[in-house]
Amino acid sequence: MQVAGKTAFITGGGGGIGGGIAEALVEKGARVVLADVDLDHAQAKAAELGDAALALTLDVTSLESWAAAKGATEARFGPVDILCNNAGISTPRMDLEEVPPELFARVLAINVTGVQNGIASFAGEMKARGSGHIVNTSSMNGLNPFGTFGAYSASKFAVLGLSDALRQECAPHGVGVSTLFPGLTKSRMSLDPKDGPAADPETLAALLPRMMDPVWSGRAVVRAIEEGQAYIVTHPDYRPIFAARCEEILAAFGDPAQPGYGTGASATMA
Q: Across the beta sheet with 31-36, what order do the strands follow?
């Protein structure tokens, strides 16, 4: 699917990876809607991108907010061809038993239910038209879980699962689905010591040189949309960790737990 002339709706579009996706799409001739809970950030990014961009307020946890944003988008640009479910939050580093229940619920509400709300708002019409593409932002934490980020990892693994299921549902209708797995990227989330991988300014300073400019993640997303790629990995240096985890899981596929299971033989107990 070529993105030129298409309309893209991007959540968390006011900066970071969402802003990078918007910038990359505009480079290729698309129109973009920057939907963000912080309208000031969205408007600032839209001003950089010019008439091809529209900034809107969106609370991804609210279907009413989605409906309002969808209506405003269609009034300006027409139907949405590309949906990028990118908005998300992280947590400070802490062991799982220390995560307050309300924080765990908020992470799931934004990172998982927010994605589902976007799918519910746009996927049906894409399938009916027989065209479109949906990009859901997971994380390298959605492939490689890390201690002290359990709540965030849980939410990003959920995004992978629902994306894979959605791809099966959408494929017969000509609608593509991609899952984005970014690593360290310059964004409000990663640059804020209170809410990201950097626990303190010293750690942040050490991580900063490893953080990718978000426009490059955005360009990877555009390639995936145009080439129909299912998975987008922007930071291949995590591959050895992922490979080791996959090997450990595959090694668990040994003999069936029940003797004779799957062979038609009756199970016998010693």
A: 53-57, 31-36, 7-11, 82-85, 133-137, 176-181, 231-233
State the CB neighbour count (10 A cutoff) for residue 167: 17
Assigned domain for 256 exists = no
pLDDT at site 269: 45
Give the chain's length.
270
Beta-strand pair 7-11/31-36: parallel
Please give the residue range of the domain that contains residue 123: 7-251
Kindly state whether residue 264 falls inside one of the protein's structural domains.
Answer: no
Q: Indicate if the pLDDT at residue 29 is higher than 60.
A: yes
CB atoms within 10 A of CB 211: 17
Tell me, yes or no, if 238 is annotated catalytic.
no
Confidence bin at 193 (pLDDT 50/70/90): very low
Our count of domains for the chain comes to: 1
For the chain, percent of residues with pLDDT exceeding 70: 89
Per the residue annotation, which of 152, 231, 238, 261 is the catalytic one?
Answer: 152
pLDDT tens for each residue of 222-247: 999 999 999 999 999 999 999 999 99
- Cα separation, 182 vs 57, in Å, equals 24
CATH number, domain containing residue 94: 3.40.50.720
